[in-house]
Amino acid sequence: MSDDAVGFILTGLGRSSIPDRTEQLELARIIRAGLKPDASKAEQRAGDKARQRLVQGNSRLAVSIARAMARRLQHGSAMEFADLIQEAMIGLNTAALRFDPERGFTFSTYATWWCRQSCQRALETQSRTVRLPNSALTMLRRWRYRKPIDQSIAAFAEEHGYRVDLVVRTLDAAALTEVGSLDIRALNGDGASLLELLAVDGDDPLAGMDEASAVAELEALLPDEMALLSLAVVDGVNTTQLGALLDCSRSAAGKRLAMARERIALVAGEEARDLVATTMPATSPASMHEVLAEPAAVAA
């Protein structure tokens, strides 16, 4: 939701007055009467109206709880403040349906717990791209919001009955699952997304990253062949010097360079010619295009 949606929600909060304790208890009794299995149509309609009145009259409470929980929203999270308000209102509606006026406590105390639970559950399940188990989320919540600043992992594990290795694995997993979106707004205040701020040449902003990762994959699969190409193109080593490094003749060095080109083309396809040339710029008269495309000329 946008800031305009939040403003619209906050503007509508003042239209309903806050019910006093006596009215809240009476509304709760009407709601419970309408929820009975043998309730008549009139009692059900009266219960729905009473629930709407109880929820609307306490909507300020839901917003205040959502505002307090908003500090847990991390930058780049899939949730926004308006989403937290919606979750708090869901918890408020649940509280209105479950509130028992005969137990002696106020509705606001009961509703606060439900609103917090609803917001907390949403933060744990919806704000993460990669979801963690509930047990891990419980541990992370204790670690982030209840642990003293100077408490060590061993002391934390002993206090809550966890194994130290389990705490370490959970913290590592939480760090690895912190996934951000390139579409989120950056912190510079101009409304630009992170993708728009990436300094990548070319029409496709992701092309540079794709090429770099593809070359890294080729270097992992064919380290010797990519090393030969790097010597020939980046370092400017000719076939005579390459033969001296490989302890072979100039002709044999050219053939090994040609074989390296063929293996790379076999693994990555013919498009590797342009790919490697883009990410490994030549500093010698012989360009990567020539090394990849004309192995016979190099061998000669």
Q: State which percent range the strand residues make up.
A: under 5%
Number of helical runs?
Answer: 17
> How many DSSP-defined strands?
0
Spell the H/E element sequence: HHHHHHHHHHHHHHHHH
Coarse morphology: elongated
Mean pLDDT: 75
Corresponding CATH architecture of the largest domain? Up-down Bundle
Helical content, roughly?
Answer: 55-70%
Low-confidence stretches: 278-300
- According to CATH, the fold-level topology of the largest domain is Four Helix Bundle (Hemerythrin (Met), subunit A)
Largest sheet: none
Rg for CA atoms: 32 Å
In the CATH hierarchy, what is the class of the largest domain?
Mainly Alpha
What is the total number of structural domains? 3
Explained architecture:
The chain folds into three domains: about 5-125, Four Helix Bundle (Hemerythrin (Met), subunit A) (Up-down Bundle); about 140-175; about 205-300, no CATH class. It has 17 helices and no strands. The protein has helices at about 5-10, 20-35, 40-55, 60-70, 80-100, 105-125, 135-145, 155-160, 165-175, 195, 205-220, 225-235, 240-245, 250-270, 270-280, 290-295, 295-300. Helix 11 (about 205-220) packs across helix 15 (about 270-280) and helix 12 (about 225-235) packs across helix 14 (about 250-270). The longest helix has 19 residues, at about 105-125. The termini are far apart. Residues about 280-300 have low confidence and may be disordered.
